[in-house]
Amino acid sequence: MELTKGEKAKLDSKDKKILEQLQRNARQTIAEIAKKTGLPRDVVVYRIKKMEESKVIRAHHTLLNPQKLGYPLYVYVLFSCYNVKPEDETKFINYLKGHRQIIYVAKNSGKYDFTIGVCAKDYMDFDDILREIRQKFADVIKDIETLPTVQEYKYDWMADLI
After folding, report:
1. What angle is formed at CA 11 by the lines to CA 8 and CA 15, rounded to 5 degrees?
2. Which residue stretches of 27-150 are H helix?
3. What pTM was estimated for this model as a whole?
């Protein structure tokens, strides 16, 4: 069941139970998920596969702690851009996506056109990254707003939306 853009997937309470378990710990075994959800193993495998195929599940990932990896500064940066040509926008996005210390890139609607998440060793490191972006894309960037993250309280917990 391949979904088109914007089409809502049809999920039921069994799918929700599976998604809740995957969001708690994506590394748990199928047997553990089956036990915790009360569903047979083959049903769990089938439903996970279907949710992956329909892009309800985009990826299974590990949430890392940047501080423990030597990057204690995590900053969201908001960019307001000029009326950018599509090819310049593509260059900008590809640059951001390819930067080693930029771990989040999103295109927005509203006052700010893009949001990125930057992991930095300190404020000098962060300033170097921003200066490099500003210089490379001076004709694209109109305004920048920075939001250093002090504490995250919730991250990607969407099973409750089902």
Report:
1. 140
2. 30-37, 41-53, 86-98, 123-136
3. 0.79
73 and 143 within one domain: yes
Q: Are 15 and 51 in contact (CB under 8 A)?
A: yes
- Joined together, the tokens standing for residue 158 give 């969407």
Q: What is the pLDDT of residues 17-42, one digit of tens each?
A: 999 999 989 999 999 999 999 999 99
Tokens of 126: 């962060």
Per the structure, the count of domains in the chain is: 2
Residue 129 makes CB contacts below 8 A (sequence gap 6+) with: 99, 101, 102, 118, 120
Rounded CA-CA distance 126/122 in Å is 6
Which residues on adjacent β-strands are paired with residue 75?
118, 148
Distance of alpha carbon 64 from alpha carbon 32, whole angstroms: 23
User: Is residue 130, in this structure, part of any structural domain at all?
Assistant: yes
Residues 74 and 47 in one domain: no
